[in-house]
Request: fold
Amino acid sequence: MILYLLYWFEYVPLINNDHFSRSPNEIPVILYWTATFGTYFHDYIKKNPIDQSDCPYKCIFTDNRSSTEKAKLVIFHVRDLNETDIPTKARKGQFHVFYNMESPYHTGIAYKRVPRNFFDLSMTYRMDSDVLVAYDRFDAIDNETTKEEVWSWGEVQAKVQAKSKHVLQLVSNCHTPSKREAYVERLKRYIKITILGQCTHRACNHATCEQKEIDNHLFYLAFENSICKDYITEKFWQIKNLIVPIVLDRKIYKDIVPVDSFIATNDFDSPSDLARYLTLLAANRTEYLKYFNWTRSYKKQNVNRRISSYCELCKIAHTRKRAGIPDITNWWEKQGECQTNFGMHHQSTVTRREVYN
Reply:
């Protein structure tokens, strides 16, 4: 959660209220009504100012509630929402934004206690959100890409040759709706897994430790705590550190990332079959390297993600005339397509031939 909070603070700006007082009628105001996991944006941004010059739309971001009447958008981080502390009524042309990066299983219940049509716009990880706030994405190589932004094949090969261990898991949530822990218990009967984090007595609490372990391992268990539509967190995006992610359910990823860049548990009939395949890959680095073909098409990092989400918010503030979500619970929960206990009731749903065709 801390990693996500830092990510959001880094990529969403909050403009000093002094700016607001200079031009209240010229630039749309976007108000953050709640904190995010208990921390207010203003406290962070004072120490970490963010340049919004790359966005063609200009907005004023604030958490000062005195701006409520003037705000075009009012953002509610639903994990911090208090249903007794909300604006009484949106003025005409003002939109309430449902903002959340956790799965429906970890959203809380306060949002269900406000009128079901209270929210007008969505800002989440889901691809069908009004504003997509993805944890990360692949950024394609183009004619303006510099050499420093891409992995050379020699760099990839050197990273791979330095790996000496099989499977890594960094985990802090020990009991999950996806029951990933049940699958791990079965998998580790057949292959060595290095498990670090709060669910073990082996800590790895800083970036240097994590990077060292990733550099030493071939595979990373990117098992999410929830199996829900489009729910792909920073766990998967360790892929950019040149490790092959193993995910629970292939269909969550198939339209978002290259299908040959990761391994899914439901590509196999059982944990023992998966372990056998991983062992074969570990012994054949030529085959293993095929999982890094994505480096020929995508950059090391997504350099443009800095402005994308807040710029889309700002665009909406300038251009959107109508909005509405008739029933937020239906949209978030029923259309969220979550599966419980996936790790306990797993079975293969595709063949390996289907994966790559």
Observations:
- The first helix runs from residue 2 to 11.
- The first strand starts at residue 29 and ends at 32.
